[in-house]
Write a structure and sequence with these properties.
Elements: H1 2-27, E1 29-35, H2 42-59, E2 64-70, H3 75-87, E3 92-94, E4 112-115, E5 127-129, H4 134-147, E6 153-158, H5 163-173, E7 179-183, H6 187-197, H7 200-215, H8 222-229, E8 242-245, H9 249-261, E9 270-273, E10 291-295, H10 298-312, H11 318-336, H12 342-345, E11 350-353, E12 358-362, E13 365-369, E14 371-376, E15 379-382
Parallel strand pairs: 1-2, 1-3, 3-4, 4-5, 6-7, 6-8, 8-9, 9-10
Antiparallel strand pairs: 10-14, 11-12, 12-13, 14-15
Length: 384
């Protein structure tokens, strides 16, 4: 009798152990990671892997398992790696990094991809752009314009491949603009275009005419008037209070230089641009200050950079921070919802506060609630 009891007890304990292991396996949160691990962008892939490792360390929960796969920044290789993730029963993937790598991912329609791109046009239904897109930025710029009661704003957009994306952002944000201009990034054409937009030749001629009028007049304070006029470059105002420049780095500086040449000063008009990721070179451009832009939370970004450097002895980029936050976002969503039905997670309205800022989720879209900054007198200052 004792042998039978021992035998039954052994079977029961083995059953419990097996059930626990199966349950434990079922509870695992499997997240794929599609990143460039070889090729010219492999350093970027390494940074993203390190960011996910840091996120796992901070979450401190062994339920999450990350499965990195190489994309080589190539759409065909990205598809092959995605199929491998599908064979591991993974239905949620962070990545790929680049828009072009998403080209064939509709062939694995039962996987949801949180791509790091900020492009939102022509994405397959199973791809969600998680980058800081134009709509998020323009929503923030719109708030600044309304707070400052700016009535007349013009928009300058370069003739580049993200032009259509900007147009969509303008429409989605419902930001009010006086006029939208496209410009060439060719420096030989740019200045002439900005001169035309700002009526430079007319204002310059106005000054010439006024100097001539005063010189031929009999006014008592003629010399004083002439002295003041000759210190000017143009005469007359422009029909806008603010200018939004959808550009970056050296191209942005070229536009600002052309505005300054056309006698449009940042001291008189609001110069607003897109997220510059706290480009320090802008601090050394006093002529363009103050300049305003939306961005992620600066303090959180600096804290993350310190933590990342202490852990890996390397400086992170902004995609590292985004990857870190996406791990936290998936974990947060998994606490209340079954990840096996991933499609529902990103359709219902939800929000998540990460290091980058607040993720706003609805209808398979991610927007970011951003902060707003200005560069003035060589320093970055937070507006809101």
């Amino acid at each position: 009798m004792n042998k039978i009891l021992k035998f039954l007890l052994t079977i029961f304990l083995n059953f419990l152990l097996f059930s626990t292991l199966v349950s434990s396996e079922e509870e695992k949160i499997k997240i794929g990671l599609l990143i460039p691990m070889t090729g010219e962008n492999k350093n970027l892939g390494e940074q993203i892997i390190n960011a996910t490792r840091l996120a796992l360390k901070d979450i401190n929960n062994n339920k999450i398992e990350i499965y990195p796969k190489d994309t080589k920044s190539n759409p065909e290789k990205t598809l092959r790696s995605a199929i491998e993730l599908k064979q591991l029963n993974i239905n949620l993937v962070i990545g790929p990094v680049f828009y072009k790598s998403t080209l064939y991912l509709d062939e694995v329609s039962d996987i949801t991809f949180l791509s790091l791109t900020n492009k939102t046009l022509d994405l397959h239904k199973n791809i969600i752009s998680s980058g800081v897109n134009s709509t998020s930025q323009l929503n923030t710029i719109k708030k600044f314009i309304e707070l400052n009661e700016i009535k007349k704003t013009i928009f300058l957009t370069p003739d580049l491949d993200y032009n259509v994306e900007i147009k969509k952002g303008i429409k989605n944000s419902k930001i009010k603009i006086l006029k939208d201009y496209n410009y060439s990034t060719d420096p030989t054409k740019l200045t002439k275009q900005i001169e035309k937009i700002t009526n430079y030749e007319i204002r310059k001629q106005n000054l010439i005419d006024e100097i001539e009028r005063v010189e031929n007049s009999n006014e008592n304070n003629k010399e004083i008037l002439l002295e003041k006029l000759k210190k000017k470059y143009t005469l007359g105002n422009v029909n806008f209070e603010a200018v939004i420049i959808a550009d970056f780095e050296e191209s942005l500086k070229s536009v600002i230089t052309s505005l300054l040449y056309s006698d449009i000063s940042a001291k008189d008009k609001f110069f607003i641009t897109f997220n510059q990721w706290f480009d320090e070179s802008l601090l050394k451009e006093p002529g363009s200050q103050p300049i305003y832009y939306p961005s992620i939370n600066k303090k959180n970004f600096e804290d993350f950079k310190k933590k990342f450097f202490n852990e890996f002895n390397k400086e992170p980029n902004h995609l590292s921070l985004l990857s870190y936050d996406l791990i936290g976002l998936v974990y947060y969503l998994s606490l209340n919802t079954d990840l096996s039905n991933i499609n529902k997670l990103f359709k219902k309205k939800n929000s998540f506060k990460g290091k980058i800022g607040i993720f706003e989720i609805e209808n398979n879209k991610i927007n970011h609630k951003l902060n707003f900054y200005k560069i003035d007198e060589g320093a970055v200052k937070e507006i809101f």
